[in-house]
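Render this sequence as a predicted structure.
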Amino acid sequence: MMTSADGRIDCAMTEQLPGVSDYYKTLDELNVPSTLSGRVTAELEMADKGFFEATDPTKFGKEGFKKNSDADGYEIVTDTNGKLLWHNSDDEKPYLIITSENVTCEYLRYLDENGISWIACGKDKIDLPRACEILYESFGVERMGVVGGPAINTAFLNNGLLDEISLLIGAGIDGRADMPSVFDGRDMSYPLTALRLTDVEKFDSGAVWLRYKTK
């Protein structure tokens, strides 16, 4: 993740930070062929405008997946109920959508028609540990970068699925109230997550790259 000095990650803001170009250098250096974004981030940055409206409410109601493309890496998006609109991507990193089993059959057919791979797992919300197993076993995803936003970052943290935290801190302050941060909305029942610093790198832009291990 790239953040301001006060830990905010609003996309429109981070695009203005000195060092934003360094973000892509650091992402390349991490060597994560697949990246994963939450629904809100995907809606802002990747998905087509509008939302899918099913004419048939029949739910899929079971675990399943469909591999509609084979690639070395995927642009993975979590979309619990299947709302976002997509087009068939010709990029080297095709889309792969993860939903809960509460998704409609019609939405999964829509993804199939557009050549987009999908995974459905978890009754009312996505079962992230199981989704990661399917990504590894059936899609060959061995290394993946979770690139936001705060809800999906926190969900991965809560499930013990993050082995490294990589933060590029840009030389700027946001300061606005109620703006998203790297992690947010964690239940008070969770203990503090201690980190082990493994590397620090400074860029000419003034940005600082911090890398931590969670274990």
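Summary. The mean pLDDT is 95. The CA atoms of residues 4 and 93 lie 28 Å apart.
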